[in-house]
Specification:
The structure is a single chain. The chain has 209 residues and is of the alpha/beta class. It binds 5-O-phosphono-beta-D-ribofuranosylamine. The site of 5-O-phosphono-beta-D-ribofuranosylamine has 13 residues, from helix 1, strand 5 and helix 6.
Length: 209
């Protein structure tokens, strides 16, 4: 799917940006199979992810949704930003905004997302809280190709995290993030290396599930 290296990567992030940091670190260390993070975009001026990008010597851009009347127009603006920088692959890393179908289609399957649950369980903005409330004993994280629906596209990688008896949302999310910071760069390597092939809903990694 995306096998041509070097691959120019953009990160979309809204918050503290620890997942973005994991990708920036892997990029800086040359550990993304020829991929390189060239841009971090945020929809929030105060997002720490922007500062993390600047510190890593990577371009940081605020893309304010304010002036855009609807999701489609914001998606088009994002596409323009990425296109101008010849971005090949987009990694959403805590980007708290639903992207337009036009954005997803415009990138032709080259958008990844990371979500703090074992999808399809607990999609949405409060995955960790929802898992705790449900009383699951095991949750985890998922890296998947993004499609037009929220937290829905074909799954590239998943890993379990055990729920401990005294967990609250913060403690559990912190342990999930530890796993995410390793798993996201691994998944990006698979995709850039051409080892992740989408067949229907599944992603075959190296030819197998
Ligand atoms: C991560 O848990 C990720 O799975 C989810 O949002 C969180 C982002 O955290 N999509 P951070 O801003 O990268 O620290």
């Amino acid at each position: 799917m995306i096998s041509a290296a070097p691959c120019r990567i953009a990160i979309l992030a809204s918050g503290t940006g620890t997942s973005a940091q994991a990708l920036l670190d892997a990029s800086g260390a040359g550990e993304l199979a020829g991929g390189r993070v060239v841009l971090v975009v945020s929809d929030r001026r105060e997002a720490h992810a922007l500062e993390r990008a600047r510190r890593a010597g990577v371009e940081a851009v605020l893309c304010d949704p304010g002036p855009h009347p609807d999701r489609a127009s914001y998606g088009d603006r994002l596409l323009d930003l990425l296109g101008a920088r010849h971005v090949d692959l987009v990694c959403m890393a805590g980007f708290m905004r639903i992207l337009s179908p036009g954005f997803i289609q415009g990138l032709g399957g080259r958008v990844l997302n990371i979500h703090p649950s074992l999808l399809p369980a607990f999609p949405g903005a409060h995955a960790v809280r929802d898992a705790l409330r449900w009383g699951v004993k095991v949750t985890g994280t998922t890296v998947h190709f993004a499609d037009e629906l929220v937290d829905h596209g074909p799954i590239i990688a998943q890993e379990c995290v055990r729920v401990l008896p005294d967990d609250d949302e913060e403690r559990l999310h912190a342990r999930i993030k530890q796993v995410e910071h390793r798993l996201y760069p691994e998944a990006v390597r698979l995709v850039i290396g051409g080892h992740a092939r989408v067949v229907g809903r599944a992603v075959l990694v190296g030819g197998t599930r």
